[in-house]
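Appendix B. Worked example

We walk through a single record from start to finish. Start with the input: the chain for histidine kinase, Tissierella pigra, length 303.
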Amino acid sequence: MGDIWVVTTFFLIFLLIILIIYHLYYRMNIKHITKQLVEIMNITDTNGLLTVKARQKDILQLVNILNRLIKDIRSSRIQIKRLNMKFRKGITNIAHDLRTPLTTARGYVQLLQTNVTEEEKQEYLKIVLERQNMVQILLEQLFEYVRIESGETTYENVPIDAKKVFIDTLTMYYDDFNKKGEEPIVKLLEKQCIILGDEQGLKRIFSNILFNSIIHGKGEYSFQIIEEESYIFTFSNISDPMTREDLDIIFNRFYTKDQARNKNNTGLGLTIAKEITMQFNGRIAAFYNDGKFSISVSLPKAE
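Next comes the structure step. The output line below is what the pipeline stores for this chain.
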């Protein structure tokens, strides 16, 4: 009986020693992981990941999970940095687009205070009013974008005739095309184009695209409706050359082509058009072929 007690005691002591060693080894690995984690998180420009020599399944699993989190955090940091850069560039663009017409208007106001003829006075007043209108459009686009992004502006999804809205919006810009000496080619479907959406929202989509066409288009304006699985509204015109990169980001917030910086464009008009189109479960895309730039808006048919 005494021998059994001695053996049992030695076994328990041996087991306790093994547990202590395992605990110390486990703690050493956790401490090593913690040290690496602190170093990695404090250095923003490193691509390092956690490493461990342990063979325990739970420790290896912990390291794998932490490494995935590190990759996600690193990716988020890069994304936030890019977004901040875009935001700063966008603010710079807006400031430029607001400052340019205001500076021009101020110059003509100063000229009005000098000895000018009545004809010159009327011409200068016309330019001042045009610049004032530019600023108003820019501010309206900015406020509308902020309202959409914040969720303050919402749109209904009720049956509407998109063809009628399309025609009404084209009519609004008829004089603008006349001033450019252009007669747009318009091709319509004979039937109604019923979709689920909001009339004012749809008018804003078409209006922003048409405004972009007038500002940047070089001629041969063509607008049409095509019926496939959805109703597709296309807007085409001759334009300056556009790269694949331009087409990929043209609907991004604050996108502008450098050559367009003097043309009253913050890049918000097409961004707003995209946001509203998405709320209608539609798709919007840009194309450039043989010197022609096109935007297509695809809207699902109402069932």
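Two observations about the output. The chain is about 60% helix and 15% strand. The beta strands are 158-161, 185-187, 194-197, 222-227, 230-238, 283-289, 292-300.
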